[in-house]
Amino acid sequence: MHISISFKSIISGILILLFSSRFVFASAKIPVHAKHGMVVSASTIASKVGVEILKKGGNAIDAAVATGFALAVTYPFAGNIGGGGFMVIHLKNGINTTIDFREKAPGKAYKNMFLDKNGNFEPKLSLEGATSSGVPGSVAGLIYTLKKYGTMKLKDVIQPAIELAENGFPLDKNTAESFKEYLHDFRKYPASFKKFSNNGEPYKEGEIFKQPELASTLKEIEDKGDDGFYKGKIADLLVQQIHSLGGYISKEDLQNYKPVERKPVTGTYRGYEIVSMPPPSSGGVALIEMLNILENYNFKQDDWGSSEYIHKLVEAMKFAFADRTKYLGDPDFVKMPIAELTSKKYARSIFEKITNRAIPAHEILPGKFPEFHESMETTHYSVYDGEGNAVSTTTTLNSAFGSKVVVAGAGFLLNNEMDDFSAKPGVPNQFGLMGSEANSIQPNKRMLSSMTPTIVLKDGKPYIIVGSPGGSTIITVVLQVIMNCIDFNMNIRQAIDMPRIHDQWLPDEIYYERFALSPDVKNNLIKMGYKFGHERTLGLAEGIMVDNNDGTIYGASDPRGPGSAVGY
Ligand code: DON
């Protein structure tokens, strides 16, 4: 009797939930939860590699580095050793730091390198082949971080990646299909075609994918550390490959590459502390600017998805992207008004300009700061170790499979990150992003990024660890996941699942996911003056939320992608 009553009450609870107008489908899903640690990445195998390191006693940094190397093997779409990225770290002693291992323009790069003789932008050169590659930073970044903040030896964290490359792993449907989709591009580069085809035929789901050349490159790194990649045999192969295709990277560029540890950009949002990536990523500055503007509103639970809510989000996005376009670039080359852009006072002045209509993009001008003298396809993984250490890393080759060029004999793909520079004022890059002098091409300069690896702290302890790929949409994806948690009390699973919108000032239109805008919301927005781009998927967030009351760690990998949250 007792059993049947409680069963009945469970069923009626479910029915109430199902028929309540407040019910959102995503709320039925419970995030993966664990007590000791969590790794969330776009590859289930790579997440498992990270968790194994935690189980062996490694900290979040050890696990992140192991996951990073594993992704270069199991997620060739974006995981890499031939690209770059950013890591935001919170240590259990309270220290926050970031590691910038962004690619750099080669020493021989020059401002107009992607313009034809008539001065027109030639995106083919910035997007594909050896000319599109910046000097890779991932290996140096991972090794630097491990040495400074990890507890394990390089061989312990790189070994799983070596084994996966050597012995292979069965291809999942997504990965096999992605190889097939790009086979046409790979065909232009013999080493790429050899790597991503099964003796000339497309790989099929379930077939074992082995990467012997990548395994030997990883072994060189295991034996020699940085020098195994930036000097000697592998560096020679890389430079040979670049030069045979008319690219610019030299041996000196490789030898001179150094990751940079930078102070995070920080802000607050409704009492939570936001720790994110400073330039050369625009992500953290734009995220904090948008949050500061939006903090001036009080959102109630029912506001989510309403035209009023979307209007406010979009206006905040537009102002932040206008500032991104004008001001942001590589801090080693340009002076930027970071304190001003991330101040509550500046956000308040933007808030005061926002009324009940869409401000046309041409009426939005980047902010003016009198005291400031102007000198002018990716993947994310989140790691928490249960001890208080958190790592939020976004890494990229830029487009899917980067430049499409695999280094012959070394088995890894090179990035096409040069397209993230502003090749010509007023001409958008592949993400439709405009840029100014601040992001012009100069030798040895880092190209501006939108990657936004972020850690949100509550009472000084990690609360949310999140990031996403998606080019310019990364910033607005991270914004919406954070707001879903803080303003709308969603768990990390719901916060990531919910449909999203995006606006980047130019083009002057809102992009939106399926189900993000109901017809009446869309009509209201049209009445306010908004225009719409096409429906599309926005981002692939990988997030962790920590309940510091009972120590439970929740993880969620974006249902839009192939990844997994793995906890223990
Ligand atoms: O650094 C950036 O902002 C871009 N290279 C990121 C590229 C990206 O997210 C591609 N994925 N969809």
Strand percent estimate: 15-25%
Ligands bound to this protein structure: 6-diazenyl-5-OXO-L-norleucine
What can be said about the biggest beta sheet?
7 strands, antiparallel
Tally of DSSP β-strands: 21
Biggest sheet, spatial arrangement of strands = 1-20-19-15-14-11-10
Quote the average pLDDT.
93
Rounded radius of gyration (Å): 23 Å
Features of the shown structure:
568 residues; alpha+beta; Serum Albumin, Chain A, Domain 1; 2 domains; seven-stranded antiparallel β-sheet; 19 helices; 21 strands; 37% helix; 16% strand; globular; binds 6-diazenyl-5-OXO-L-norleucine
Short structural description:
The chain is an alpha+beta fold and 568 residues long. 37% of the residues lie in helices and 16% in strands.
List the helices and strands and how they pair.
Layout: H1 2-19, E1 32-34, E2 38-41, H2 44-55, H3 60-74, E3 84-90, E4 96-101, H4 123-127, H5 138-149, H6 154-167, E5 169-170, H7 173-186, H8 190-196, E6 197-198, E7 201-202, E8 208-209, H9 212-224, H10 227-230, H11 232-244, H12 251-256, E9 260-262, E10 265-269, E11 272-276, H13 283-294, H14 307-327, H15 338-341, H16 344-351, E12 379-384, E13 390-396, E14 454-458, E15 461-466, H17 473-486, H18 492-497, E16 501-502, E17 510-512, H19 519-528, E18 532-535, E19 542-547, E20 552-557, E21 564-567
Helix pairs in contact: 2-3, 3-5, 3-6, 6-9, 7-8, 13-14, 13-16, 13-17, 14-19
Bound molecules: 6-diazenyl-5-OXO-L-norleucine.
6-diazenyl-5-OXO-L-norleucine (DON) binds at residues 377-378, 396, 398, 417, 420, 449-451, 469-471, 474.
